[in-house]
Amino acid sequence: MTTLSTVYARSGAVPYTVSLTDDLAHTWIGDEPPDKGGANLGPDPTRLLLSSLGACTIITLQMYAARKHWPLAAVEVELQFNPQGKPASGTDITRRITLQGELTAEQRARLLQIANACPIHNVLEGEVRIATSMDAPPAA
Fold first, then answer.
1. Rounded to an integer, what distance in angstroms lies between the CA atom of residue 75 and that of residue 16?
2. What is the pTM of this model?
3. How many CB atoms lie within 10 A of CB 45?
4. Model confidence over 10-51: pLDDT tens digits?
5. Which string of b and e fits 78-102 if b means at least 16 CB within 10 Å?
6. Using CB atoms within 10 A as the burial measure, which of 100, 104, 114, 138 is most buried?
7. Left (φ > 0), alpha (ψ -120 to 50) or beta: where does 9 sit?
């Protein structure tokens, strides 16, 4: 069974600061840095995107290692968006994964394969369709 994930984004009084909530009652903020006119109250959209990939990578690795009873003690992921500048086409994301624990070379290699199969990685590498609609203005 697939769970429908829903996020609500709302603007407020502070320019570029966005209140984000979801169907599970989590709340967080997106914003822009001051040099772009924001208040820097939260990560910008690019960092929010990278955080999704980082969280998914770590969770996927932890789940896999737990099922295999492998001694994965901790995972760190560093992500960068277009680290060499905007490419002529597409987008470049670099991801550096650090695994802690007494893992064999074979286990580490398998965990790299698993990281490359995390659901958000698959979304970012796959075809994404975005259906956008707009509500009609309220009647006067």
1. 32
2. 0.91
3. 12
4. 998 999 999 999 999 999 999 999 999 999 999 999 999 999
5. ebeeeeeeeeeeeeebeeebebeee
6. 114
7. beta
